[in-house]
Amino acid sequence: MTYPVNMNIKPDVQAFFDEATNTISYIVKDSTSNSCAIVDSVMDIGYAAGRITYDHADELIHQIVSQDLNLEWIIETHVHADHLSAAPYIQEKLGGKIGIGSKIMIVQDTFGKVFNEGTEFQRDGSQFDQLFEDGDTYMIGNMQVFTMYTPGHTPACMVHVAGDAAFVGDTLFMPDGGSARADFPGGDAATLYDSIQKVLSLPDETRLFMCHDYGPNGRDIAWETTVGDEKAHNIHVGGGKSKEEFVEFRMERDAQLAMPKLIIPSLQVNMRAGEVPTDVDGNPMLKVPVNKL
Ligand SMILES: [Fe+2]
User: Fold this and answer.
1) Where would one find the signal peptide in this protein (predicted)?
2) Which of 23, 49, 138, 162 is the most exposed place for a label (fewest CB within 10 A)?
3) Which CATH number covers residue 175?
């Protein structure tokens, strides 16, 4: 696959860190118009009380309204397991199309079974407005964006590249954070290594924007690096680490990791493009499958 890289286009990127989930949401603006996209929004949840609120999403909405921007896309880099998407809430207020990788269907099939969803839960990705294939392009104003299919962390992961800016989802972390786990259903460490190499084949000066950062070793939270920096310094794949080394390390590490705190509500909501499921009477309701994850 040859991707239409154009390093002369430099979108304006605004980042919004969510402390509760260590997620970074982005507003990506075409520099030649008022058009923008959101990448990986967050809906707030107090899981103990089952309470959903929208402070983080409201901040994104406030920024878009106050800067007089036109929201064209609400992008999910993948089905997140650690935070809930606010895509439908934002879409209702500002419009825009919700997009994700077409392999969402695999994720829906897997977790449709885990959560014992009935036939009313469609496993065809139809909850989303747009399903992307590898190398698809779309426009934010006058700026072309292309997608790179990057499975491994999950089967539906995609990196979105707008000019010199790439939104890597959980394909990579900051150089001192390494990479994301590859042990969720449908994840695979060797596949993740190949996907990371794909991202690292972009020009060295490409700006990379992370979906998560945990400030390893007490450093301040950070979310932006470059391909060149990751190639040289990434602790899991930098300095020419081999696929074998990576796979061995990743599998050993993943075996020790606990499930993310919000995986149960996150998957149920995110596989529905951010809609909270409802019970037979139409009340918003989440399930907890016992001993299934
Ligand atoms: Fe993730």
Assistant:
1) none
2) 49
3) 3.60.15.10
- 186 in a domain, yes or no? yes
72 Cα to the center of ligand 1, angstroms: 23
* Residue 34 structural domain: 12-266
pTM here is 0.97
pLDDT value of residue 22 = 98
34 CB contacts (<8 Å, ≥6 apart)?
A: 67, 68, 69, 70, 141
Q: How far is the CA of 126 from the centre of ligand 1 (A)?
A: 21
Cα of 19 vs centre of ligand 1, distance in Å, is 16
What is the distance in A from the centroid of ligand 1 to the CA of 32? 31
Q: What is the pLDDT of residues 155-198, one digit of tens each?
A: 999 999 999 999 999 999 999 999 999 999 999 999 999 999 99
Q: Give the pLDDT mean for 62-84.
A: 98
Q: For the residues 282-292, what does the mean pLDDT come to?
A: 95
CA 281 to ligand 1 center in whole angstroms: 31
In angstroms, the Cα distances linking 135 to 3, 55, 155, 205 are: 6, 34, 16, 20
Local structure of 63: helix, strand or coil: helix
Tell me, in angstroms, the distance from the centre of ligand 1 to residue 211's CA: 8
Which pLDDT score, from 0 to 100, does residue 232 have? 97
pLDDT of 251-260, one tens digit each?
A: 999 999 999 9
Residue 212 is assigned to a structural domain of this protein: yes
Please, which pLDDT band fits residue 293 given cuts at 50, 70 and 90?
confident
Kindly give the pairing relationship between strand 35-39 and strand 44-46: unpaired
Is residue 227 domain-resident? yes
Q: How far is the CA of 28 from the centre of ligand 1 (A)?
A: 20
Rounded distance between C-alpha atoms, residue 179 and residue 192, angstroms: 9
